[in-house]
Amino acid sequence: MTIKKILVANRGEIACRVMRSCRDVGIATVAVYSEADSAALHVDMADDAVWIGPPPARESYLDIGKIIDAAKATGADAIHPGYGFLSENEDFAEAIAKAGLIFIGPPVAAIRAMGGKSEAKALMEKAGVPLVPGYHGDNQDEKFLAAEAQKIGYPLLIKASAGGGGKGMRVVEKPGDFAEALGAARREAKAAFGDDHVLIEKYLTRPRHVEIQVFADRAGNTVYLFERDCSIQRRHQKVIEEAPAPGLAPETRAKMGAAAVAAAKAIGYEGAGTVEFLLDTDGSFYFMEMNTRLQVEHPVTEMITGLDLVALQISVAEGQDLPFTQDDLAINGHAIEVRLYAEDPANNFLPGAGQIQYLSFPLQRDAVRVDTGVREAPFGDGDVISIHYDPMIAKIIVHGADRAQAIERLSAALADTHVAGPKTNLNFLRAIAAHPAFAAADLDTRFIERHADVLLPAQKPRLDNATLALAALGVLHLRAEAETAGIKPAADPTSPWQHRGGWRIGGADTETLVFNDGTSDCSVKLSCKDGLDSPVLSLPDGSLIAARFAPAAEDMGFYALLEDEEFHAVALRDGNRLTVMHTGVGAEMVWHDPLNAEFAQEDTAGRLTAPMPGKVVAVRVQLGDAVKKGQPLVIVEAMKMEHTIVAPVDGKVTAINANIGEQVDEKRELIALE
Ligand code: ADP
To answer: In order of start, what are the domains of the chain with their CATH numbers?
Structure first.
């Protein structure tokens, strides 16, 4: 049977990705959207769109009934779940079948078989797939588990059987820590998945995460589309993925591929799936889990195989056979994907939210692909990264003839990527791409931890001369833009009314601008004797730079000449925060604007504010308590994670402005210390 119209039960980058393939193969699409997404890109891309409820996912994207009603109402004959949300939910797949629609995914029984990590491990054991040594049985008695732990040996890992996204996982280093870690893993699992069943396994100290993409059709033809190395992770979640896995021996690849195919066959798999393994330093590999859906990182596989995996999913769902066999498949070159997130690497990767004020991506050519669900909105009307959903902004994927070329292209692509608004991990991604250990493919799942000193500098780097100079020009540019906003340009180019700035005859022609880069003040002296568009800049290290600048026609930025080096830069202002972006650099600083008292830097010492909008789940102190530096004060839950606000210094609690269960806004002062 042929599919004519697909409802995509997802949002953002995911929904856009699926719709692109539907368009390519001539299938109409239906978007569903929550109230937070009424102006979202995925809604614009679809042929039809159905509103399914308020922003919280539980009341919209996770509401099976509403999604099926939307499919029926719009005459869709199939539903693609994307990844995340309901993509691995067997009740959803079942409800779709009951409604007489096609689920673009595996059979319900296959989802169920791999649904729990414990059950999946038991099944794989039977199929002869190697497992990490551990206990994954039903007995959940604490004493029993502690005895099993002793048998397995330390360090070990406690995992929520229902887990995903690194939640409900605890590494335990020594027997004395077991009971507490077990309690914490259970609580987190209960809260996140409503199920506190755990398994324990040996914790490998230097593993790589290598996963195999499998594909199967209804006739039982099952192949593997090689592997992806996803070792670069933070909080046990992937940040960078690549294909093929660097240095993987062809025999190991063949063995892992065969094990993955065996796993898929053991559960009667259909469509796209991923079998995740840990690869140990000695080349042995162990089954971790199978994801019964398309993965976020599937584009790297597409790049090295030349296949469109979504189109392939659709044709398999239509009942067609795979158009190739294992022998037809080969690896072409090397591909790398990075995930650009709204998050703060310097603050334990705290997810961010907020309006995107500026967004620009590298040009997409054959070797560079950008998958995103938010829009480039250069004039301030940007999409919002909502606290209700995953904070991913985009995936940037590059291809090269070999790994070295792919890395070169990755660095170039990241240099051409700019975001202003929410904090992002962009500079962090740039640092990884430039790291010698990454170039040397010295990978394992603790890569980020091991290189944290370089990747996550505790002190922000001081502003380099070019960035400081461009910040100063940026201020002049922003002033000029503000002054001419709404003023029609004079017809006569020599008219004094063409002047776009605050410069006056007889007025001061020098000015000092002060920027703080987070560690110290840097002042730039401007001398504008030759006109406002060609100042001479005097920088803190004593250098003098002759500059010229002019507004860019194509965006809100400007072109600048610093001595004889040319730059294209964008400056954005939000209160007293100035963001300057130019080639490969996105720098944020505080600008002390003496004319703008409203934005004068406030004294934040001794105040403890919510790091992001969220719900207060615990208040650990009482009024008048004496607290020690580092002591937990308040716990706020946001984006499904708990954030602990600790005392920055020793002190006494003088005010508490947080009640358990209360929803608080970002920057709300929760505790005051004296
Ligand atoms: P989730 O489903 O929550 O993503 P996984 O079981 O897929 O959890 O594991 C996520 C990551 O945790 C892996 O990619 C790996 O980095 C790490 N990990 C999992 N199991 C082990 C283990 N036994 N030893 C060391 N690291 C592990």
So the answer is: 5-104 (3.40.50.20), 133-202 (3.30.1490.20), 208-227+248-455 (3.30.470.20), 465-482+501-591 (3.30.700.30), 607-673 (2.40.50.100)
φ, ψ for residue 126 (rounded to 5)? -65, -40
**Which residue among the candidates 253, 293, 369, 430 is catalytic per the annotation?**
293
Pairing of strands 334-341, 392-400: antiparallel
Helices (H), 59-135: 64-74, 90-98, 108-115, 117-126
Percent of the chain with pLDDT over 70: 91
Q: Which ranges in 371-446 belong to alpha helices (H)? A: 403-415, 426-433, 436-439
Q: Is 479 a catalytic residue?
A: no
pLDDT band at 346 (very low <50, low <70, confident <90, very high): confident
Task: Name every protein residue with a CB atom under 6 angstroms from any ligand 1 atom.
Answer: 132, 157, 159, 163-166, 169, 201-204, 207, 209, 233, 236, 276, 278, 288-289, 445
The pTM score is 0.79
Whether pLDDT at 592 is above 60: yes
| CB 37 within 8 Å of CB 16 | no
pLDDT at 472 over 80: yes
Question: What mean pLDDT is predicted for residues 270-277?
Answer: 98
- What b/e sequence results for 299-322 when a residue is b if at least 16 CB atoms lie within 10 Å of its CB, and e otherwise? bbbbbbbebbbbbbbbbbbeeeeb
Atom of ligand 1 nearest to the CA of 205: 25
**Cβ distance 326 to 308 under 8 Å?**
no
Spatial distance between the Cα atoms of 407 and 188, rounded to a whole number of angstroms: 37
Statement: residue 14 has pLDDT above 50: yes
Q: Label residue 418 exposed, middle or buried (CB < 10 Å: 0-12, 13-18, 19+).
A: buried
Residue 558 token pair:
């400007």
Which residue intervals of 194-308 are DSSP H helices? 250-266, 298-305
- Mean pLDDT, residues 455-471: 81
Q: Rounded to whole angstroms, how far apart are CA atoms 441 and 436? A: 9
Tokens of 160: 């929520």
- Would you say 570 and 561 are in contact if contact means Cβ atoms under 8 Å apart? no
Burial class (CB in 10 A: 0-12, 13-18, 19+), 259: buried
- From residue 264, alpha-carbon distances to 213, 250, 275, 673 in Å are 10, 21, 8, 57
Cis upstream peptide for 244 (omega within 30°) = yes
Ligand 1 binding pocket mutation candidate from 172, 209, 444 (most atoms within 8 A of CB): 209
Beta-strand pair 418-420/558-562: unpaired
Residue 348 CA to ligand 1 center (angstroms) comes to 19
pLDDT classification of 597: cutoffs 50, 70, 90: very low
Give the pLDDT confidence score for residue 138 in this predicted structure. Answer: 94
What distance in angstroms lies between residue 236's CA and the mean position of ligand 1's atoms? 6
* C-alpha of residue 438 to centroid of ligand 1, in Å: 21
